[in-house]
UniProtKB/TrEMBL annotation:
Keyword terms, alphabetized: NADP, Oxidoreductase
Protein name per the record: 2-haloacrylate reductase
Domain Enoyl reductase (ER): 8-338
Source lineage: Bacteria, Pseudomonadati, Pseudomonadota, Alphaproteobacteria, Hyphomicrobiales
Organism whose genome encodes this protein: Methylorubrum aminovorans
UniProt keyword Nucleotidyltransferase, yes or no: no
Pfam families associated with the record: ADH_N, ADH_zinc_N
Gene3D superfamilies xrefs: Medium-chain alcohol dehydrogenases, catalytic domain
Keyword NADP: yes
PANTHER family for this protein: QUINONE OXIDOREDUCTASE PIG3-RELATED, QUINONE OXIDOREDUCTASE-RELATED
Length: 340
C-alpha cells in the first residue's frame, strides 16, 4: 500500500509499504480517505523532536475513512461504516481515560503522525475504542476536520472557556482552520465575535462566516481596536493560539474576570507577562491540548446539523508537502485536506 513517510528534515516521500495485518481482538482496520493538515504537521515536517522518534514515519495526525475490517469482539462498528480515528494512542486504562478525559491520558504512547506512524497511509489498524462513527450527511473531507480542528475548538470553547450564549469573544487568527471553526461555533450560540486577520480579503471571508468585528492586525493594533469597540470593557473570552506575538495584547482585550484559552504557540514558546495585571484583573488562563473523544462526536453532530468546516484546499496525497507549505505561509483560509 502507499504511505507518505517523513525521512528527515522536510524530506517527505510517497512510498510503498507493507499493509497492516488483519485487525486483532478489539481492533478495526480503517481505509483512510482524507487527512487534515495542522500546524503539528508543520512542526514535524521541520524536524521537531527527531531524536524522540523512529524514521521513516508515516505522517498525518487527523483523518477520516471507513471500516475495512473488524477484529474479534468489536461491537457497534461494521465494515463500510464512515469513521474518524482519534489522533493519539491512549492507554484506555488510567483514570483520565476511564473518565473520558482522553487528552490527559497518563500513559499515552504518542500523537499519531508525530511520535507514531500517522494516518497518511491507505490502511491503519487501531483499537475500536479510539474510533468514532460519522453521522449521515457528513462527507470524508468534512469529517477529516473533526479529530483536531473541530474537536480542539469544541474542547477549548465549551469544556475549558465555558463560553455561554450572548458572551463576547476575540478569536485570534480567524482565517486558520481552528479560527474559522471558532467563529462559526461562537456565532451559532449567539456570541458577539471579534477576530483578527492578516489581510482585507480574509477579513471579508471572516465577516461572511458571521464575525461581527474584523481587525486587520497588520494595519491596526488589535488590542486597541477591541478596547475601542467594546467601549473599554473588553471581551469575556479570548481564543488564543498564536503565542508571543499576540499574548499580552490578548490579555489586554479581556474584561475583568475574563477567560483566555490557548492551544498553540506558532510564533514561539515563551512569553513575559505582567503578574499584577493577572491577579488584579482576576483573569483565568487555561491551556487546552487536543480534545476528548467525546468532543469529536459533538463536532460531527454539529457538522451533520449544518455547521460545516471551512475548507481552503483539497489536494491529492502526493501534494501533502505543498499543502504544508501553504499552511506555513499563512495564506490559508480554513482547512487544507489531502485525499487518498
Amino acid at each position: 500500500m502507499q504511505a507518505l513517510q517523513l525521512f528527515g528534515d522536510r524530506d517527505l516521500r510517497l512510498t510503498d509499504v507493507e499493509p497492516p495485518p488483519a485487525p486483532g481482538p478489539g481492533e478495526v482496520q480503517i481505509r483512510v480517505r482524507a487527512v487534515g493538515l495542522n500546524f503539528i504537521d508543520v512542526w514535524g515536517f521541520r524536524g521537531m523532536a527527531f531524536a524522540k522518534r523512529k524514521l521513516p514515519l508515516a505522517v498525518g495526525a487527523e483523518a477520516a475513512g471507513e471500516i475495512a475490517a473488524v477484529g474479534e469482539g468489536v461491537e457497534g462498528l461494521s465494515v463500510g461504516d464512515a469513521v474518524v480515528p482519534y489522533g493519539a494512542l491512549t492507554c484506555g486504562k488510567c483514570r483520565a481515560c476511564r473518565e473520558g478525559r482522553d487528552n490527559l491520558c497518563e500513559d499515552v504512547s504518542g500523537v499519531m503522525g508525530f511520535h507514531l506512524d500517522g494516518f497518511a497511509r491507505e490502511r491503519v489498524n487501531l483499537p475500536a475504542r479510539l474510533v468514532v462513527r460519522v453521522p449521515g450527511g457528513v462527507d470524508h473531507v468534512q469529517a477529516a476536520c473533526a479529530g483536531i480542528a473541530f474537536g480542539t475548538v469544541q474542547h477549548m470553547l465549551f469544556d475549558n472557556a465555558r463560553l455561554e450564549p450572548g458572551e463576547s469573544i476575540l478569536v485570534q487568527a480567524g482565517g486558520s482552520g481552528i479560527g474559522t471553526a471558532a467563529i462559526k461555533m461562537a456565532k451559532a450560540i449567539g456570541c458577539t465575535v471579534y477576530t483578527t486577520v492578516g489581510d482585507d480579503a480574509k477579513g471579508e471571508k471572516a465577516k461572511a462566516l458571521g464575525a461581527d468585528h474584523v481587525i486587520n492586525y497588520r494595519e491596526e493594533r488589535f488590542e486597541g481596536e477591541v478596547r475601542r469597540l467594546t467601549k473599554r470593557k473588553g471581551v469575556d473570552v479570548v481564543f488564543e493560539h498564536v503565542g508571543p506575538e499576540t499574548w499580552n495584547g490578548s490579555l489586554l482585550c479581556l474584561k475583568p474576570g475574563g477567560r483566555l484559552v490557548t492551544c498553540g504557540s506558532t510564533s514561539g514558546v515563551s512569553v513575559q507577562m505582567n503578574l499584577m495585571q493577572l491577579f488584579q484583573q482576576q483573569y483565568r488562563i487555561t491551556g487546552s491540548f487536543g480534545c476528548r473523544i467525546a468532543n469529536m462526536s459533538q463536532s460531527l453532530d454539529k457538522m451533520a446539523a449544518g455547521l460545516t468546516p471551512v475548507v481552503d484546499t483539497v489536494l491529492p496525497l502526493a501534494d501533502f508537502a505543498q499543502g504544508l507549505e501553504r499552511l506555513e505561509s499563512r495564506k490559508v483560509f480554513g482547512k487544507i485536506i489531502v485525499t487518498l
